[in-house]
Amino acid sequence: MQHLGFKAVASTSSGFAWTTGRPDYGVNRSDVLHHLSVMSSAIDLPVNADFESGFAEDPEGVAESVGLAVDTGVAGLSIEDRDIGADDKLYDLEIALERLHAARMAIDRSRQDVILVARTEGLLIDARAVKPAIHRLVAFAEAGADCLYAPGVIDKDDIAAMVRAVAPKPLNVLMMRPGFSVSELADLGVRRISVGGALARVALGATITAAEQMRAGSFDGLGAAMQGGPLNDIFREHEKDRR
C-alpha cells in the first residue's frame, strides 16, 4: 500500500484473524497488539487500528486496552458498540457511551495525537436500522469521538444524512463491494473511506480458486500470479528506505 502511494492504512480484524487460521473476533488482545506493533514499525504511514470492542466489557478495561494500543504507535483506533459476549447485540447506549468516554480519556492521558473512531455495528445486524445508527453516531460525536463510522450503510441518501448529522466531524464509510467511487463518496461529504477485510477476501478468493483448480489437476490458476521479481523489488526498495 505504501509502495502504491496510499497515504494511510488500516488493520482489519477479520483479515488478521484469517491469516492466523481463526474466524473474525477469534484473536485476543495480545495477538492484536503484537500485530499493530509490527504494522506500525514496518511502514512510514499512519496506521488506524481495527480495535474491535476494546477487548473488554467494562470502561476500565477498555481504557487499559486503548492505552496499550496507543503504545504500539498507531495513529488511530476504532471502538465498536457490539457486545461480543452476545450474538447480534449492541451495548445499551448508556454503557456504550461510558466505554467510549473511557477510550477518549485514555487517549488524552497518553498525550499522543491518536484519532478515536466510534463505530456502531447496528446496520450489520439490521440493515434497516438507519435512524438508530444515526442516533448513536450523534451521541458518540458529542461524547468525544473524532470520527464516526456505521459499517453497512449503502444508500446514497442515508450516507448524506449521516454526514449532515455528525458534521463538522468526519464520517467514515465502509466499501465492502463495488459501488460508489471515491469521488462520488466525496461529493456526498464522506471524508474517510475504509474497505475492512475486502482486500483479504480478494486475496483469499484468488488463492482458493487457484487451489481448487490444482486439486482438479490444473495449474492454470497460477498464471494470474504476480511475478516474484517485482515483488522483491518493492520490498528491497522499502528495506533500503528504512535503513
Characterization of this structure:
The chain has 243 residues and is an alpha/beta fold. It has 2 domains: 9-196, Phosphoenolpyruvate-binding domains (TIM Barrel), CATH 3.20.20.60; 199-243, no CATH class. Helix content is 49%, strand content 11%. It is built from 10 helices and 7 strands. The protein has a 7-stranded parallel beta sheet, covered by helices on one side. The longest helix has 18 residues, at 93-110. The radius of gyration is 19 Å and the shape is globular. The two termini are 19 Å apart.
Write the layout of secondary structure elements.
Blueprint: E1 9-10, H1 13-19, H2 29-42, E2 47-50, H3 59-71, E3 76-80, H4 93-110, E4 115-119, H5 122-125, H6 130-142, E5 147-149, H7 156-166, E6 171-174, H8 182-187, E7 192-194, H9 198-215, H10 228-242
Parallel strand pairs: 1-2, 2-3, 3-4, 4-5, 5-6, 6-7
Short description:
The chain is of the alpha/beta class and 243 residues long. It has helices at 13-19, 29-42, 59-71, 93-110, 122-125, 130-142, 156-166, 182-187, 198-215, 228-242; strands at residues 9-10, 47-50, 76-80, 115-119, 147-149, 171-174, 192-194.
Which descriptor suits the 3D outline? globular
Q: Tell me the structural class.
A: alpha/beta
Count of discrete structural domains: 2
Distance linking N and C termini:
19 Å
The percentage of residues in β strands lies in 5-15%
Characteristic key phrases:
alpha/beta; globular; TIM Barrel; 10 helices; 7-stranded parallel β-sheet; 243 residues
